[in-house]
Write a structure and sequence with these properties.
The complex is a heterodimer of chains A (about 110) and B (about 110). Helix content of chain A is about 0%, strand content about 55%. Chain A is mainly beta. Classes of the chains: A mainly beta (about 110), B mainly beta (about 110).
């Protein structure tokens, strides 16, 4: 079956430092990977959508400079939160799709910023 | 930009009754409509989806209805159970677009 793994599951970083999170698709080809953030104050927000062989599209309020994303192949993507601050806290979800089939979600990386 | 609206932020029903969650969309090119469930503290899990070539799809206690004219789709859950309690998100995308546009979620509470 199709699965999406994310690691780490939980991480704590000091304010102003950076942390990298990874997403791995198993059992299907992740032609697109969407990164989302779910924070206590806000609902589910799309950060960016990465489609293999296309430029990564960032949503308003999110930038490549702050959330650089790599999507080098059809099974892997990573995103870094640079210079993390309190407002970056939350659950970061990776959703991967093969073509226009259903999007499979990983369990998320929960980021705490001290 | 394109929007998907989920009208009920919270829905409370008695165990055993039916629940209906409604969504509307703005993009006439939308052709794929999935539903996801998120239990407390967990990630999203795919529940059911429907494509625009049909107007109804059923899977056990779940039915999705699609009204393309009204640009509306809905999730119907029959014989609700405590484990149905969760936040339900609807989404829409066009065939040519990999991006899903999400609703804001409906918290479904199943009362004993």
């Amino acid at each position: 079956g199709a699965l999406v793994y994310q690691y780490p599951r939980r991480t704590i970083c000091k304010s102003g430092t950076s942390m990298r999170m990874e997403c791995q698709a198993v059992g299907f080809q992740a032609t697109s990977v969407a990164w989302y953030r779910q924070s206590p104050q806000k609902t589910f927000e799309l950060i960016a959508l990465s489609t293999v062989n296309s430029a990564i599209k960032y949503e308003q309020n999110f930038t490549q400079e702050k959330f650089p994303i790599s999507h080098p192949n059809l099974s892997f993507s990573s995103m870094t939160v640079l210079n993390a601050y309190l407002e970056d806290r939350g659950l970061y979800l990776c959703g991967a799709r093969e073509g226009t089939y259903e999007q499979y979600f990983g369990p998320g990386t929960r980021l705490t910023v001290l | 930009g394109e929007k998907v609206e989920q009208h009920e932020s919270t829905l409370s029903v008695r165990e055993g009754d039916s629940a209906v969650i409604n969504c509307t969309y703005t993009d006439t090119a939308s052709s794929y409509f999935p539903w996801y469930k998120q239990e407390a503290g967990k990630s999203l899990h795919f529940v059911i989806d429907i494509r625009s070539n049909v107007d109804r799809k059923q899977s056990q206690r779940l039915t999705v209805l699609l009204d393309k004219k009204a640009k509306r789709f809905s999730l119907h859950i029959t014989a609700t159970q405590p484990e149905d309690s969760a936040i339900y998100f609807c989404a829409a995308s066009a065939d040519s677009n990999y991006q899903l546009i999400w609703g804001s979620g409906t918290k479904l509470i199943i009362k004993p």
